[in-house]
Design brief:
The protein has helices spanning 25-34, 74-77, 87-99, 114-123, 143-152, 173-178, 186-200, 204-208, 216-219, 227-234, and strands at 9-13, 42-47, 51-52, 55-58, 104-107, 131-133, 136-137, 161-167, 240-244, 260-264. With 265 residues, it is α/β, with parallel strands linked by helices. It has a single domain (9-264), classed as Protocatechuate 4,5-dioxygenase, Chain B (3-Layer(aba) Sandwich), CATH 3.40.830.10. The protein starts with 8 loop residues before the first strand and ends with a strand. Its EC number is 1.13.11.29.
């Protein structure tokens, strides 16, 4: 039951698509953070992998599973997540955002990219909860703008809606292509700790000016994986208790596993 419950909000480090098939420190952190969690009426995901012009709301009855990657084993492309969609909630979100002078539109062409279904397949394997995605507007890099979109949707936490921002605080695929196991990860650990401290202190100024950190260009070479954190922060406030997962990296030290749970107290 979700009556009289304010749902938690999650920022999830989704890492590699292979996390759909593997059990590792990424998936262990997800499991630890999500348990216990009230059963949601619906799930809304802000995924790094839907970074397109405008704010689009997935408004379909049956979202397709998108395999938006290449070079992985065939069994990964066989994975599906056949959950129902949430078109009624999508329309409610569109109306709320439009009323706040945010131009949000319905989208019937997208589905669930791996920033969504890889995580959901582990956490809600029965795929029986309605899911929709909200795109990240790639025309605007301002963290405050993205946090404001999320803030408008905050009341839905009291209606049983579970929000997930799916990205990575540190994500550098080019470093992954050339990395060696002996390479230092000081650049990544320093940036991650800098942002984690700012999140814990609810210091939006520092989060918004992430690019001033000495290692920002290495940790955030492109902004799309960082933006879901802005949505998680916009959906929460100073009264939310934070639980941070462990700080670890993928095998080549290019994506950090820090996930965060926010609980109303």
């Amino acid at each position: 039951m979700t009556d009289n419950i304010t749902m938690p909000v999650f920022f999830v480090a989704h890492g590699s698509p292979m996390n759909a098939l593997e059990n590792n420190h990424f998936t262990a952190d997800w499991d630890t953070l999500f348990k216990p969690c009230p059963t949601p009426t619906a799930i809304v995901v802000f995924s790094a992998h839907w970074h397109v012009p405008g704010t689009r709301i997935l408004s379909v009855d049956n979202p397709k599973t998108i395999h938006d990657f290449g070079g992985f084993p065939p069994q990964l492309f066989q994975q599906t997540y056949p959950c129902p969609g949430a078109p009624t909630l999508a329309q409610q979100i569109i109306e709320s955002l439009n009323a706040a002078d945010i131009d949000a539109i319905s989208d019937n062409n997208w589905g669930l990219d791996h920033g969504s279904w890889v995580v959901l397949n582990k956490l809600f394997p029965q795929a029986n909860i309605p899911v929709l995605q909200v795109s990240l507007d790639n025309r605007i890099d301002d963290i405050h703008h993205h946090a404001h979109i999320a803030d408008v949707l905050k009341p839905l936490r009291n209606e049983g809606v579970l929000f997930i921002g799916s990205g990575n605080i540190v994500h550098n695929i080019m470093k992954w292509m050339i990395a060696r196991p002996s390479d230092s990860i000081e650049w990544a650990s320093s940036f991650d700790q800098h942002i984690a401290n700012a999140v814990k202190q609810r210091d939006m100024h520092t989060v918004a000016r992430f690019n001033e950190h000495p290692f920002a260009s290495d940790a955030v070479p492109t902004i799309e994986h960082f933006l879901p954190l802005a949505y998680a922060l916009g959906l929460t406030d100073n009264n939310d208790k934070q639980t941070h997962s462990s700080f670890e990296f993928d095998d080549l030290g290019t994506a950090c596993s820090r996930s965060i749970r926010f609980d109303a107290v």
